[in-house]
Amino acid sequence: MIELDGVPELIDPVMVAAFEGWNDAGDAASTAVAHLDKEWKGEVFAALDAEDYYDFQVNRPTVWMDDGVRKITWPTTRLSVVRVGGEKPRDLVLVRGIEPSMRWRSFCNELLGFAHELGVELVVILGALLGDTPHTRPVPISGTTSDPDLARRMDLEETKYEGPTGIVGVLQEACTHAGVPAVSLWAAVPHYVSQPPNPKATLSLLNRLEDLIDVRIPLGELPEDARAWQVGVDQLAAEDSEVAEYVQTLEEARDTAELPEASGEAIAREFERYLRRRDGGPSPDDRTRPPMPPKTGGKDEDDDSSDD
Length: 308
What we know:
10 helices; 10 strands
């Protein structure tokens, strides 16, 4: 049993998770959770034991200096809690880590233990994949779930995927079998420009998350970073005629396929988001976080090590 002495009673908590690795094209998903953690000043309250789940020859620890003292940071998965204020405050449990190298079922069970103890009502797992999508168009975001009732209620797709999967798919199924509502949000990253970072994909994931859980997320410099990223890719594509022609082909295919969507629900969602940002949601200054408990839940460091 996971003991979380000192954790306050949470308000309508939602767990938002992302993992570096196979399910994180362009680092878009992990950067999204890092952004939430940074904007709302999350503090780590628990970490999984790195030695239980990670191969250190694959995900190596890093050495750094702290006032002349050498310390080691071990790769692991950490949890923090932030409170979103306003008229209807709610708490987010942020899970940020690396896809584990081993013992995936135990890994998921441990995260589900935290979710149970914290009273989490919904788990949202962010992912990003490489796709045939042009960088000049809005980033496609798909929301999927294994729960047909949840799919109908939240206007999501009921997943029909078959094939190799990563920790995102495994954790979603573990949540379903445990009776915890779970959703995956996937961003499609252009495969011809897959190098991280991809702020445009990160921004799109956060916008979709905002719609899904009905909170206003402070975006900081992300919109400007996304514009600068697209300008940079435009310049690179213009220098290669074959790439430019390929991008044009993708644009034509995308525009043809999504014409009805562009004129309907997508515009309505964007307008609703605009209204919410203009006068319907709390400002970033309204955010507070609940008091943090002492660290628990894992030995992610030894005598000569330190967390981030």
